[in-house]
From TrEMBL:
Residues 68-154 form the Cytochrome c domain. This is Cytochrome C oxidase, cbb3-type, subunit III. One of its GO terms (molecular function) is electron transfer activity. It comes from Stutzerimonas xanthomarina DSM 18231. SUPFAM superfamilies: Cytochrome c. Keywords: Heme, Iron, Metal-binding. It comes from the Bacteria.
Length: 222
């Protein structure tokens, strides 16, 4: 019994020393232009998916179909997300092509859509991925506006998306906004976008397509 324990202890020490040597001698290439091997990629992706899923289980999803929520979310998405996650009708960007891991294309009709997981990811971010923790500067209600937009994004045409952005409150989330390269203008004297004209509100609602979800989970826009 003592011999077995000694053998296990020596094996554990050897593994720790081997791991330390791998780190110290720079065996692992952390360059973003060198993809992970298949097994490492699968391990990291599974760890990410399970981490988000477990933490999102208790999140209660509010009603996300309101046109005002979607319209408001469009302004922040254009300012804060589009460079990495793209917009309807837009091609890839330098960021979307060169980040590692590659950010998901949120306009993809085949992507997984889980509002609770999207909320958690936007709020808390993903370490070592380039995904910020927007919850540090955004209240939950503004994050839900982004989630509402994401629910509709794959079904929007480029024209519908641009109309939503044009009639939104721009880059706004209650204060602390900084200049972003793709930012739509912030509404003057009102970070909450309450001073849009009635005409603009009608344009925003008209821009939102009539969407229903099929039994197979796909969306159809009219």
């Amino acid at each position: 019994m003592l011999k077995t324990l000694t053998t296990l202890l020596l094996a554990a020490v050897a593994l720790v020393l081997a791991a330390a040597a791998v780190v110290y001698f720079g065996v692992v290439n952390v360059g973003a232009d060198v993809p992970h091997s298949g097994p490492i990629h699968s391990l990291l992706e599974t760890a990410r998916q399970r981490s988000v899923a477990v933490r999102a289980e208790a999140i209660k999803v509010p009603e996300l179909g309101d046109a005002e929520l979607i319209r408001s979310g469009a302004g922040n998405y254009e300012a804060m997300c589009v460079a990495c996650h793209l917009a309807p009708g837009a091609g890839p960007t330098e960021l979307s092509e060169n980040l590692s891991p590659a950010p998901p294309n949120l306009t993809d009709v085949n992507r997984k859509r889980d509002p609770a997981e999207n909320f958690w990811t936007i709020k808390h971010g993903i370490q070592a991925s380039g995904m910020p923790a927007w919850g540090r500067s955004m209240e939950d209600r503004y994050i839900w506006e982004l989630v509402a937009l994401l629910e509709q994004l794959p079904a929007l045409t480029a024209m519908e998306y641009k109309a939503l952005v044009a009639t939104s409150g721009g880059h706004h989330h209650g204060g602390g906004e900084t200049n972003m390269p793709n930012a739509a203008p912030v509404a003057k004297d009102d970070h909450h976008g309450d001073m849009h004209s009635t005409e603009n509100l009608h344009q925003a609602e008209a821009a939102k397509p009539d969407i229903h979800r099929h039994a197979d989970g796909s969306d159809h826009a009219h």
